[in-house]
Amino acid sequence: MAADLTNQEADSPRLHDLVTDNVVHSKFGSSRRNSFLPNDSFELLFTRDRIKKELSGASDELIDFVHAHATRTFATVLITFPPELKLDLTSIMESFRRYRFDDSFLPIDGEDLRSPSHRCEKHATALNVFRDDKVLSGSWNISKFLNFQWMFLVPTFPLPTNSRILNSSCVLPFTAFGECSFESNDSAMKFKAKLRVDHQTILSRENESLEMPVVLKVLRSPSGWTNPPDSERPGLESAWYKATAYGEYSGPDFPAEKSSDGAHEPRMIGSFSIDKEYWIITREK
Q1: Is 55 exposed, middle or buried (CB count within 10 Å of its CB: 0-12, 13-18, 19+)?
Q2: Which of 30, 107, 232, 276 fits a 20 to 30 Å CA distance from 55?
Q3: How far apart are CA 134 and CA 112, in angstroms?
Q4: What letters, b where the CB count within 10 A reaches 16 and e where it falls short, cover 270-283?
Q5: 3-state helix, strand, coil in the chain (%, to 5)
Q6: Phi, psi at 178, each rounded to 5°
Q7: Is 16 helix (H, G, I), strand (E, B) or coil?
Q8: How far apart are CA 201 and CA 39, in angstroms?
Q9: Could you report the per-residue pLDDT of 91-140, keeping only the tens digit for each?
């Protein structure tokens, strides 16, 4: 059960333990690492006061840097190095500040670290933090950082048009997934799912529920593939872009609907592509 985060500022457990107590599990893609910290919990946990308490002896400059620019980097470091290791997190985060590595550089992958020169000078310089012996010395620690970063990089829909093709390691905020339905001539397979309400900005919250029912549609090629051979991929990708070309809110195939108070609410919540499949999220009717 998730811990109550609202009244624990003064005498809270270690931040590491609060994070692990409040992660939830994605049901999308069983083969992926599926734990993530929801947006609501993240905002309540990573306050300036909690960061200051965790980073013993840190300067105000470092606290400000972490709170304003590197909370997700700090969260990843926190899980990579649990309290029992008794490492100096203040020194580690000071190194991130010194190299000017902040959340804008996340996510990173092994290729970034193997060949930083292929990135821009600013990016390559920031990545030098991973070569600093005071930070993530050893390939095992770097591997853990690369894995744990995804707990804190879960998308919020709708995504910007140029950010909808996701890394295959991305954790998606669907807490239930199943009940597939489609006909042989359908252009999409449909799945009933539940989406964390704090990972979408289209619909207002109507109650205290943390989840909302949605329909996930994965497009199919004319031959019935959701992950088609290369010869059919351009057509499927084009159909996906066309279906969402009118924005993440609504389009001719996803018209707005009237809510109980007469206001028009869009049916489409967002779209994304992962593992060469093309998905659309809509409200459940």
Answers
A1: buried
A2: 107
A3: 20
A4: bbbbbeebbbbbbb
A5: 40, 20, 45
A6: 170, -165
A7: helix
A8: 12
A9: 999 999 999 999 999 999 887 777 655 555 667 788 888 888 777 666 77
Q: Alpha carbon of 205 to those of 43, 117, 268: distances in Å? A: 17, 45, 16
Please state, as a whole number, how many other Cβ atoms lie within 10 Å of the Cβ of residue 28.
20
156, 42 contact by CB (below 8 A)? no
Alpha-carbon gap, residue 281 to 284, rounded angstroms = 9
Whole-prediction pTM: 0.84
DSSP per position, 72-102: HHHHHHHHHS-GGG---HHHHHHHHHHTT--
**HEC profile for 94-154?**
HHHHHCCCCHHHCCCCHHHHHCHHHCCHHHHHHHHHHHCCCCCCCHHHHHHHHHHHHHHCC
DSSP state of 162: G
Q: What is the mean pLDDT of the chain?
A: 84
Cα distance between residue 140 and residue 145, in whole Å: 9
Summarize the confidence of residues 234-261 as an average pLDDT.
Answer: 63
Position of tokens 């744990």? 148
DSSP conformation class of 159: P
Residue 165's φ and ψ, nearest 5 degrees, are -90, 110
- Among residues 132, 144, 135, 154, the alpha carbon closest in space to that of 198 is found at 154
Model confidence band, residue 30 (pLDDT cutoffs 50, 70, 90): low
Position 37 scores a pLDDT of 98
Structure tokens at 7: 């009244």
